[in-house]
Amino acid sequence: MINKQMFEYGSKSSVIRELFSYGLERKKIVGADKVYDFSIGNPSIPAPAMVKQVILELLEEPAEVLHGYSPAAGDPKVREALADSVNRKFGTRYRADNFYMTAGAAASLAISIQALTVPGDEFIVFAPFFPEYAVWVETAGAKLLVTPADTEHFQIHLEAFENLLTPRTKGVIINSPNNPSGVVYSEETIMKLSEILERKQKEYGTSIYLLADEPYREIVYDGLKVPFIPNYYKNTLVCYSYSKALSMPGERIGYVIVPDEGENAQEVMAAIAGAGRALGYVCAPVLFQRVAARCADVPSDISAYKRNRDLLYGGLTEFGYECVRPQGAFYLFVRSPEPDAKAFSERAKQHDVLVVPSDSFGCTGYVRVSYCVSEKMIRDALPVFADIMKEY
Ligand code: PLP
Prior knowledge:
The chain is α/β, with parallel strands linked by helices. The chain folds into two domains: 4-48 and 301-390, Aspartate Aminotransferase, domain 1; 65-295, Aspartate Aminotransferase, domain 2, CATH 3.40.640.10. The protein is built from 14 helices and twelve strands. The chain has helices at residues 4-11, 15-30, 49-59, 63-66, 76-90, 104-116, 132-139, 158-164, 187-204, 265-279, 286-295, 303-318, 341-350, 375-390; strands spanning 36-37, 99-102, 122-126, 143-147, 169-175, 209-213, 236-241, 254-257, 331-335, 353-354, 356-357, 366-370. It has a seven-stranded mixed sheet, sandwiched between helices. A three-stranded antiparallel sheet has the order 9-12-11. Strand 3, helix 7 and strand 4 form a beta-alpha-beta unit. The longest helix has 18 residues, at 187-204. The mean pLDDT is 96. Pyridoxal-5'-phosphate (PLP) binds next to helix 6.
């Protein structure tokens, strides 16, 4: 007898992974340049040169320092450097003790949800949302409630959200810039959301934590500013990662911030350390903790993503596809020309264009197009997108 829930998670791969694997096989048959794979969110711009330089410098250090354990929460000097960096950017007053280093945003979210949950708790997400949230919430023994999408602007459907809040609400997960819509939630949205949460906390006499999932914080276009959520709502936990900002998703490095201003902050941080211990997320990769500390303020050159966004958004809308203009991340959320997004994705697949149907993002009738790909692939794929539209 084994754990059935884990068996299910392990044996059913996600739609995104399935499409990506299909693409790899298909490329062997028709040639790599004949398959237009927009399925996965693997950063296509290289890590900044400074990342390599810092790694090379660190490799010269004595082996016991280079390869040794750090404390479970991470190297105190690393956490101090990251606190200083965040303080400079957002005018906060964090200390090393507010940071817990993790293996990416996935681990940050998994341990934060686990740390907060008691039986009967509920977490609310906003459609469209990153599908792994369901796995982390269910594993913690909580229930996931989905706020239907605001399909006009892809901000937050605040009225529907308010109706889902109850005394059982333990947390709300917010992701901006958003995967899969590419939208950045506006300051107005964040302020209204905070007002609702403050009011409901008072009404119920509970604490409701806002989990800010922020791997795309640095990937924004046209000089837009992403509101730093703890500056608007006190009970926020920040789940950050360097996967996209520094283009190093394979190195598995990120952190959770538990601000002092939040309710029971010390207990929450202790519970996060406990969840890290229980789930095995202790002592995040030490070499990359130190790389992150040294490169936290290094900007990535995201101009290639911006060019891709402009090219793809401009082309697709010209052919008659409907899509909200992305302000960040590297995804386009395109309305399927037929109501069944799976059928549209299948049709596109017949043309060797791989796009992800939106059902698993909690919002039917759209496809996600990841544009963290080469500009050439977008240029080659555009006439094919035009041909597909002509079939409708
Ligand atoms: N959250 C969102 C919205 C994501 O898109 C991803 C990865 O694609 C993650 C979390 C997990 O990122 P990480 O590589 O930091 O674990």
